Model the fold of this input.
Amino acid sequence: MKYSSCHGMRRSLLAAAISTVALPAMTHAMSFELADGEVSGQLNTSLSFGVSYSTEEPDKKLTPTAYGGSAAGINGNDGRQNFEKGDVISRIFKGTSELSLNYQNFGTVVGVKYWYDDALENGEGHFKEFDDSGFDDLAKFSGIELMDAYVWGEFEIAERPLDVRVGRQVLSWGESTFIQGGINVINPVDVNAITRPGVEIKEALLPVNMVSLSMGLTDNISASAFYQLEWQGTVLPGCGTFFATSDSIQPGCGPLYAVSGLTEEQQENMSLVNPALPDSANMVLPRLSDDEPSDSGQWGVALNYFAEWLNDTEFGLYMINYHSRLPYVSAQTADYDDRPGNGFFLNGVSNNPAYGDASIPMVKGPEYRAMFPENIRLYGVSFNTSGPFGMSIAGELSYRPDMPIAINGQDFLYATGFLDVASPIVGELFDLDITQPGSGPILARNAGLYDQRVDGYREKPVTQFQTTLIHTLNDLLGASKMTVIGELGVIHVGDLEDEKEIKYGRSAVYGSGIEGIAVACKNPDIEKSYCSLNGFTTEWSYGYRLKSMLDYNNVFYGVNVSPGLAFRHDVKGYSYAPGPQFVEGRQAVTAMVNFDYLGTYGAGVSYTNYYGGDFNTQKDRDFVSMTVSAKF
Done:
């Protein structure tokens, strides 16, 4: 079948190129036969030991004022303050084992992963104790987890091939390479695994229970579909670990603290409200149970066309319905005693003298939860082809008509937590008129705003385009092969309100800017560059990624050596949160060298330097990693 062979060849090229990001691929496996040769099998095991060190001190501009820095937020500092320059951030033994069995046109694949991070399991942080209680199982410091576990079958219907898979599996659609947020949303990402030393490319995506089908309709057209049987979220680094940029949204983390200028302990013991309540009732927001989406309702269909007449170009059409893999903040507003005689405003004084002192006693403080929006619809098109000089060129365009876009966290926290802040976001969220500047919103007792759920996002149309070029050169710079990969991405967010009305994105580390709460403009200890309307989600954003690897074969005693460089640059604009792909000016460079002996033993050393960008929360997380590995 023309389509299958060419499609598989193109995919193999892309997979080979991507694999240069991680450890060198080694393919040794234990093969065996059962039942007089009718059943064949393979057992693949990969083991590695790696260590990573922090190579930079925490940036004072990202440290809360309460702890000697100048940041405007206090809910994302634990991980960075736990480590100083030279500290071990991970010292991990890990492995994967995968068993595959084949019988005629049927088979099964079962895989497990296991790990033990001694640095986190037995170490102590400088700021807080390492504690993975309540973390996602895959984010814990040690564990063993089932990965792939599916059965497959190959059939023919009307002399056309039909492939079926049922169970825990990874299914990749689209043409993305490094830049996320496109068509390839079927499986969640294990961010925690990606940050560990010695990561392999297959560890990046998490298998999910689903039924997937692929059928050749003609020699050049195929159709694919899937239906997921469970929902699984992206695994984020746990709070207090080096790469965690939040202390409150991941499983097992929290609570939320309201004030940068007070330590967590001070806020937990601060009494500003009804004496009958806990002292911290309006300074600390407790975490409620997560609102996870349904296990049903996630599906997708795709149609691929292989145009042999057009330079062997493959086109794809996609439609996917999925639930968010990333968490959003949802608030439960405070409750107040609004009986007659207590006034009509919340903890404030009206500008109208007829109202007088109009404070209302709080009877329950604000709370928050992590939630995951459901039924995000995605439409996409893709292509891949061969370019001049042996290049491989691929690209995709995706469109989400109603993509959840996160509201600025600092604005959302104050507006929903206290209901008495003179900020336009209060009027936007609750559809209320705002009184004269500085007086706060009119929140009468019959407005029904007490003890209400408010989700911290708005739905906007989002379009994303990305294209990848892969080129392999032989006999260059003394190397047997040089592989170069480049990817460019552009994101457009439509229907954004004026930033003076409601703002999206920008880490709470930087506060809410010059409008609204404007903490950075009022507190002399906070970095003054944060007092601006910069850094929030913009209509357009774009950036690129580059990767180059050289392969030197048999350099000494059968050892192959592969040095490489990777570079990322977010050129312009700020894409939507959570997990913004582009943050203007943000850059990173990684230098690495990998060693491979006989395709069985390997080693690698890499150094990553983050820099650039006025609103880059990664800029002080430089690190170096060293890994040894074996596969059999």
About this structure: The radius of gyration is 27 Å. The chain has one domain: 2-251+290-327+372-407+456-496+537-631. The longest strand covers residues 457-476. Helices lie at 2-18, 78-81, 118-122, 191-194, 264-268, 409-418, 424-430, 519-522.
